Amino acid sequence: MKKSAVPAKKAAPAPKASKPAGSKGKRPASAFHKEHAHLFPKTPRSFGIGRAVQPVKDLSRFVRWPRYVRIQRQRAILKKRLKVPPAINQFTRAIDKNQASTLFRLLGHYRPESSEEKAKRLKARAEAGVKGKADISKTDKPMFVKYGLNHVTQLVEAKKAKLVVIAHDVDPIELVVWLPALCRKMDVPYLIVKSKARLGHLVHKKTTSVLALTEVRKEDAAKLEQIVANARLQFNDNVAERRRWGGGIMGNKAQAVIKKRERQIAREAAGKA
């Protein structure tokens, strides 16, 4: 018998790749994006050498500061930590900005002569004396503020000074630390102001520790009386501030520990109650 011809088997088609659940087919690019492709360009930045500028970073923690800067910061922190006696702590309480502006406006009317102005005045006086129009024996020296520690001290001891102005940043502080006590003993009103450089500018110097007013013109007498009254109230007669100690300020971590301890004590007291 002849065998019947068996048709050849065909290979099964490969199965289609199944799409993950929830996924959709790739959407064709819209006509808008094709037409306006220039509106959405990609501009990646490269931060390599010579390329885009690096973003701003705070590098202060990585800087090794100069020795004088480290000493300044250590000194400032040490002054906060240590307890400061009242005689030195009083120099941290200067008058406010409004009072200082009023005071310096008054002192500005009594600035001493510069060397050029003095030479010009003496020359004019000598010429007038030669012509017989003025008496050379009489002086026409203008009124101005007195400066210099020794000179002001003599004026305070003689009770000729009507107002004493002391800078708060005199270094060393021992130069003027005794002056407020002397002013109180002699009943001379005094003020503490900021910046010895600002006082120095009034008298044509780089810095000045102390100034004193001995006399003013009639039009400025009322303003001086007002400043003197404020000085007596704020400095001469203020016993509480004069006896206050300074310093003793701990760091942020120590303050946080103290506050946490105080809260714990308060909670325990509330629980017992």
Count of helical regions: 11
Helix content: 40-55%
**SS-derived structural category:** alpha+beta
CATH architecture type of the domain at 85-113 and 143-242: 2-Layer Sandwich
- Strand/helix succession: HHEHHHEHEHEHEHHEH
Q: Can you tell me about this structure?
A:
This protein is an alpha+beta fold. The chain has eleven helices and six strands. It has a domain of 129 residues: 60s Ribosomal Protein L30, Chain: A. Helices cover 42% and strands 7% of the residues. It has a four-stranded mixed β-sheet with strand order 2-5-3-4. A two-stranded antiparallel sheet has the order 1-6. The longest helix is centred in the C-terminal third of the chain and has 21 residues. It is elongated, with a radius of gyration of 41 Å. The model has no long low-confidence stretch (mean pLDDT 85).
Describe the structure concisely for a colleague.
By secondary structure, this protein is an alpha+beta fold. Helix content is 42%, strand content 7%.
Topology:
Blueprint: H1 31-35, H2 67-81, E1 83-84, H3 86-89, H4 97-107, H5 115-130, E2 146-147, H6 149-157, E3 163-167, H7 179-185, E4 190-193, H8 196-202, E5 210-213, H9 221-236, H10 239-242, E6 246-247, H11 252-272
Parallel strand pairs: 3-4
Antiparallel strand pairs: 1-6, 2-5, 3-5
Task: Please name the defining characteristics of this protein.
273 residues; alpha+beta; two-stranded antiparallel sheet; 11 helices; 42% helix; elongated
